[in-house]
Write a structure and sequence with these properties.
The structure is a homodimer of 374-residue chains. With 374 residues, chain A is α/β, with parallel strands linked by helices. Chain A has 14 helices and 15 strands. Chain A has 3 domains: 48 residues, no CATH class; 135 residues, ATPase, nucleotide binding domain (Nucleotidyltransferase, domain 5); 162 residues, 2-Layer Sandwich (Nucleotidyltransferase, domain 5). The first copy, chain A, has a 5-stranded mixed beta sheet with strand order 5-4-3-6-10, sandwiched between helices. Chain A has a 5-stranded mixed beta sheet with strand order 13-12-11-14-15, sandwiched between helices. Chain A is globular.
Chain lengths: 374, 374
């Protein structure tokens, strides 16, 4: 972006923006270059770019079937990444932390000399205590009160804290900043895998609630009569009726799992497989009830579908839209757009990276004094 | 409150608070008096009080079976009030506006000379467009796009705009500022009459959403199979299962209506009437599902029950709490307190008054130049 555009966006004058970008450039966070083509008749305005390749974070994602780590540059570009599979069940804290730390160290050690690690962010599919990254509840792995953030910090040994967030919370921010929800500060992000999570932005702020555990969309009761059992111990939760187990079972494919299996059901449904089509319709119907309820409660500008719900919504939009029309108040739904995640499967990872950049963003000049890698 | 206490609350020093309270006193908004008993060994600190009897607003409440108007002083004290019945059905805009304006003019004309009307607020049981007080949707009276705010302003002819809000939104603020929710910025207020409405504060701010129509709690679908028909055209909404019609019908008292009828069911249930007890249990069970869902979504510090839900919760707390335990995530519910409205039946009216004071609060010195009554 040019200095002139920055000045306009921030409502400051040219001399102020010059002072600010000069300071950021001196700290090694942005570079400035003269534009190739002068704009109009006035002085050419310098283009200010983030130092994407010099300033990075480590971002981690504990996904359902794998552990992902990436080196993400300032501005959201994935510079390097590593993945490993993880056991579907019985993954304990040591296994997960050990696996992530090994990937993270590899990435860190491979970072070019002179680059700077500005922070570390991690995404986890559970309820995270703000501040220290304690997993209060992670039903999919059966975790209760596991010190994920502090253990990962210790195992990495980089000397930086690990900012942990719930996967859907992080993805909601990522979609708002860089994905399908740009310009929509009242945004609902729905994430599906085994579980179904939500990240809800109200006026651009994450809905935290009293203790930071808001947005538990997946455990909204939608089916009070004989609903499917949920990992949380209840039954009929949105997660139980719309997660991948529900879809795969309804399609007669119990025992399969993962996003590829979900994609196969959706593909077969589109191709005319009746069991698959029935499963998509049934699961999409419950998804529509959940979305209608959320639209009534939040009057969102955009609802973004991520993870397996991205696939499900693509195939079940008729069911979802019918339920919204049936149960959503016209005034509440008149401006709500429904969209697939713009960042695709990387929404959670990019969200973790943005969380990792949080400390730098809060105090760019102080933090940029971090010592370079190598 | 003393000047010293104000200074501490606001984080300013004594000379700053002296300058501020002197300015507010000169504008006629507060009075200052020396305390009867000097505090400790230091100088006595002057006590600053709002000019409750001098500065007032007109507050209106369109309740289910009556129209209410009050003159409310700065600080929330009801100085004078008038009520009239209204038709349960077929109340059109002219009838409601005419009735309210007559009450409001009476109150205004009866205000002592030298007092100042600082604003006008009105509560309506429907979806209100921010800015002009247009009722976008009021299912209970069948209103769609009725210019309630501007018509009431014109009918009153006082020369002040009417700030209109949804009744549950206004009551949520009133309970936060002066009722059961003081100190709890993450608050859910649930209001029952014929309809069920909600006002949700997230970090002390009303959840408005994209266009200001958030918090439509009453139309959350809780009963997807054969639920009761709702005034909104759908069925199985929280409102349909927990509003006064549902309770009275389940108790075998179809045809009765109003808060007194609801109170009678609750009283009879407590006294051992089996039909009444069954109605309370059934309706409370649905209320518990709704509250559990809201706790999962919002991680509130407090849930406040108002209108008929205040009575229902008092009798059906076991059902409500059982559902919260069954469906609410432990981490989400561990700090949520459930309370009856501290302001009782006046929560909406006091909320309307606070909305009426909004312009004065935003610019106290500029607004206080309003010409006195009489």
């Amino acid at each position: 972006m040019t200095r002139a555009a920055l000045a306009e966006r921030m409502g400051v004058n040219r001399s102020t923006i010059l002072a600010l970008t000069t300071e950021l450039a001196a700290a090694g966070l942005v570079s400035e270059e003269s534009p190739a083509v002068p704009e109009g008749a006035g002085r050419p305005s310098f283009v200010v770019r983030p130092e994407t390749r010099r300033v990075f974070v480590l971002a981690f994602d504990v996904a359902v079937d794998r552990l992902v780590a990436a080196r993400v540059g300032l501005g959201g570009a994935v510079l390097d990444r590593r993945e490993t599979t993880r056991p579907r069940t019985g993954a304990d804290l040591d296994t997960v932390v050990g696996g992530l730390a090994a990937l993270g160290r590899e990435l860190y050690d491979a970072a070019p000399p002179g680059t700077v690690c500005a922070g570390i962010g991690a995404s986890y599919c559970g309820m995270i205590r703000p501040g220290d990254g304690m997993v209060r509840y992670g039903p999919e792995m059966g975790w209760v009160d596991q010190a994920f953030g502090t253990e990962l910090e210790a195992a990495l040994g980089i000397g930086l804290p690990v900012a942990v967030g719930n996967e859907a919370h992080l993805a909601a921010f990522a979609e708002f900043q860089r994905g399908a929800g740009i310009g929509s500060p009242d945004l609902i992000y729905l994430h599906g895998d085994v579980g179904v999570g939500g990240g809800i932005l109200v006026g651009g702020q994450l809905l935290g609630g009293e203790s930071g555990y808001g947005c538990e969309v997946g455990h909204m009761l939608v089916n009070p009569y004989g609903g499917r059992e949920c990992l949380c111990g209840s039954s009929g939760c949105l997660e139980a009726e719309t997660g991948e187990y529900a879809l795969l079972e309804a399609a007669g494919r119990a025992g399969e799992f993962g996003r590829d299996a979900v994609r196969a059901v959706v593909r077969d449904a589109t191709a005319g497989d009746r069991a698959a089509a029935g499963a998509v319709a049934r699961t999409g119907d419950w998804l529509g009830i959940g979305v209608a309820n959320l639209i009534n409660l939040f009057n969102p500008g955009v609802v973004v579908f991520g993870g397996t719900l991205r696939e499900l919504y693509a195939a079940a939009a008729p069911q979802v839209n019918a339920r919204i029309k049936q149960h959503g108040m016209p005034v509440s739904r008149e401006r709500a757009r429904l969209l697939p995640a713009g960042l695709g499967d990387d929404a959670t990872l990019i969200g973790a990276a943005e969380r990792g950049f949080g400390a730098l963003m809060a105090d760019p000049i102080g933090r940029s004094a971090l010592s370079p890698v190598g």
